[in-house]
Specification:
It comes from Streptomyces qinglanensis. By secondary structure, the protein is mainly alpha-helical. Helix content is 73%, strand content 0%. The protein starts with a helix and ends in a 9-residue tail after the last helix.
Length: 203
C-alpha cells in the first residue's frame, strides 16, 4: 500500500469512527482522544488530519452524506426512475441501524446550527445537495416519460420536509408512525404529483 493509500485509509477510518462516536455520545461530549481511541490511531495522527473538533464534525457529516449517496448509485442507469426515487426516500428515513446513526448525526447538526453560523451554512449546503439529489431523480423520470411533468423544486422540497417530519417521529419511537406508514404517506404524495402507481416500489 502506497503512502497516499495509507493516508486515505487512516482518514476514512477516523471519519467512520467520528460518525459513530458523535452519534453515540453527542458532539458536545466528544473529545479528540475518544475518536482516536475508537479509530485505533494516535491523537497526533488525528490532529494531523483534523485540527479541531469543529473541522472533524464538518468532515464527518460530509463523509456520512457522501457514503449514503454512493451506495444508492448502484445500477442507477438500468432501473426505473421510480425505484431510484424510492431508494432515496427510503434512505432519508431511519430505516436501519446505519441510517439511524446518520439521523443522530443530522440531529446533532440541527442543534449546532441553531447557535453556530458556520454549522448553519453547512446544514443549508447539505440540504441543497439533498434537494438536488431528489430533484435529479424526479427530472430523470419526467424526461423519460415515467413521471408526469411537475414542479421539481417544489416537489423535492415537500418530499424532504415529509422525510424530516416522519424521521423525527420514528427516531422518537412514536407509536403512531412506522417505517411502512411513513413510506406509504411519502409515496402517496409523490404519486399524486407524478401520476404514478401509489404502491411503494420494491427496492
Amino acid at each position: 500500500m502506497s503512502s497516499a493509500e495509507r493516508t486515505r485509509a487512516s482518514r476514512e477510518r477516523i471519519l467512520s469512527a467520528a460518525c459513530e462516536v458523535i452519534a453515540e455520545v453527542g458532539f458536545e461530549k466528544i473529545r479528540m482522544r475518544m475518536v482516536a481511541e475508537h479509530a485505533g490511531v494516535s491523537t497526533a495522527l488525528l490532529h494531523y488530519h483534523f485540527e479541531n473538533r469543529e473541522k472533524l464534525f464538518t468532515e464527518a457529516m460530509t463523509h456520512s452524506f457522501a457514503h449514503t449517496s454512493t451506495e444508492l448509485e448502484r445500477d442507477a442507469d438500468t432501473v426505473p426512475a421510480a425505484v431510484i426515487l424510492a431508494r432515496i426516500l427510503h434512505s432519508l428515513l431511519p430505516t436501519d441501524p446505519v441510517l439511524r446513526q446518520d439521523w443522530r448525526l443530522w440531529q446533532e447538526l440541527w442543534v449546532r446550527a441553531l447557535r453556530d453560523e458556520t454549522t448553519q451554512r453547512l446544514a443549508v449546503d447539505l440540504y441543497d445537495q439533498l434537494h438536488d439529489w431528489v430533484g435529479q431523480a424526479l427530472r430523470r423520470g419526467v424526461d423519460s416519460g415515467e413521471f408526469a411533468d411537475c414542479d421539481v423544486d417544489a416537489t423535492s422540497t415537500t418530499l424532504l420536509a415529509l422525510c424530516d417530519g416522519f424521521g423525527i417521529r420514528l427516531m422518537l419511537g412514536d407509536p403512531r408512525v412506522t417505517v411502512a406508514s411513513a413510506q406509504t404517506a411519502l409515496w402517496a404524495t409523490a404519486a399524486r404529483e407524478l401520476k404514478i402507481a401509489p404502491q411503494f416500489p420494491q427496492l
